[in-house]
Every structure is written in C-alpha cells, then in structure tokens.
Amino acid sequence: MNKNNISAVIITKNEEKNIVEVVKNVSFADEVLVIDNSSEDQTVELAKKSGAIVYVEKFSDYAQQRNYALDKAKGNWILYVDADERVTPELKKEILKVTNEFNPIKTHYIIERKNFYFGKHEWPYIEQIERLFVRDKLVEWYGKIHESPRTVGDKGKLTGYLKHYTHKNLSTMIKKTVTWSSVEAELLFKSNHPQMSWWRFLRIMLTKFSDSYFAQGGWKVGAIGFIESMYQAFSYFVVYAKLWEKQLKTKSERKN
C-alpha cells in the first residue's frame, strides 16, 4: 500500500447499475473493498472487473456488513461509501490531505452529504454523516436499520461533499419500503411500543411530512419536494401499520 493507507469500502446488494462508477470514483484509495450481500445480478462480476477486492456473504443488516468490512480492511484509514454515493473532487482532496498527516489529531470525520432525488433534483437539507475513520479507532457499527459508528477519539469535519443519488424512481422507493418496513416494525414491536390507534397514525404521518416538507425545505423544490415528503409519510404509515398488525395478532393470541 501507499503511504495514505486508505481502504475504501462499498457495501452492495444488487447494485450492477452503480458499481462500476463508484469503484472508479474511489480509486484514489489504496484498496477498494466491495462487501456484497449475496447479490442476484452482475454486481460481483462487475466489481471484480473494475479492480475491487470482493467479499460475498449473507448479511442481516447494514451494521453487520460494515463491521465485516472493518475486519477485512488493511488500511490505516477506512472510508465508507455506498454504491449510490460519489466523492466530489473537493472531498477527495480533503480526504487525501488528512490521511497524509503523520500524527492525526482527529480520529474520525464528518462528511456533508447532498441528496439528489430522481437523478438530478438537489434536496435543500444537507446531512452530516461519519464515514472516514482511523481504522483502529472505529470500534464497531451498531443499529439494525439506521446504523451508527462507535468510535474512540476526537471528531473532525471535512470540506467538500458526498453526493447521494437516492430515490431514483417511485418503484424502487416503494420496493425499499416493503423490504425494510417489516424490520422496523419488528424493532418497534420488541421495544413494547404503545398500542397503535388512529390518532397515532395521523400524528406520525403529519410529523414526517412536516419534517420533510417544511423543516428540511422540501417546499423549495416544487413537485419533487411534495412527492418526497408524501413518500416519507407513506413509508412510516406502512411501518406502523405493520406494527399495528403485529399488536393485533398478539392480542388475539392472548385471548385464545
């Protein structure tokens, strides 16, 4: 490896449309690892042809997938990038700068992420996520749905952006909801969430729509903002409807 010792990690599941471009995008790293969750398309083959080191396993969640990568990565630094994300030139320059430091003061870094919906529409709200780590200061990833890193040391912040091309069409959005709503509902059920009722559904949907459309500025981007905000409300409706179904089934079983 070169002096930077960066391992770029891409976690995948059926990402044949993205994998070649994202491997190329992070080719400035000293090694590119693709941790694949038993894809059924050409993701693995294309990743290998693009020069990535590929591991294929069956994972139950993203945290498990990221922790597997942590075990396999050889670099002093580890950069996590999803298949639908792209490192901008400014961010690349900043990553190379901090990873070249002989004795880094910060052990993990926040990266600002810009979301683009339906391929090109930039979302007003900019996320802040932790994706660059001194490898031995990243303890683990945890969380079955919205995974988070557990780290040691001080946090810094990089300039430049990570571009996230999410929610490319309605079909994939709905498919994602169907896939993950059951997992989220199960987690809520196991946490003994209060019994669902009509007003809880209304409150949850209004809260999610309001956060997306007003707090995050969805109203600024016209129809896309309204559609995305309605989708957020719908997505959470499905989650809590599945929770209600589980609660109803358990209540019925107890009576019997």
Walk me through the topology.
Blueprint: E1 6-12, H1 19-25, E2 31-37, H2 43-49, E3 53-57, H3 62-72, E4 77-80, E5 85-87, H4 89-99, E6 108-117, E7 121-134, E8 138-142, E9 148-151, E10 155-166, H5 170-190, H6 198-215, H7 223-255
Parallel strand pairs: 1-2, 1-4, 2-3, 6-10
Antiparallel strand pairs: 4-7, 5-10, 6-7, 8-9
Question: What does the model show?
Answer:
The protein is an alpha/beta fold. The protein has two domains: about 5-165, Spore Coat Polysaccharide Biosynthesis Protein SpsA, Chain A; about 170-255, no CATH class. Helix content is about 40%, strand content about 30%. It contains seven helices and ten strands. It has an eight-stranded mixed beta sheet, sandwiched between helices. It has a two-stranded antiparallel sheet with strand order 8-9. Strand 1 (about 5-10), helix 1 and strand 2 (about 30-35) form a beta-alpha-beta unit. Helix 5 (about 170-190) packs parallel to helix 7 (about 225-255) and helix 6 packs antiparallel against helix 7 (about 225-255). It starts with 5 loop residues before the first strand and ends with a helix.
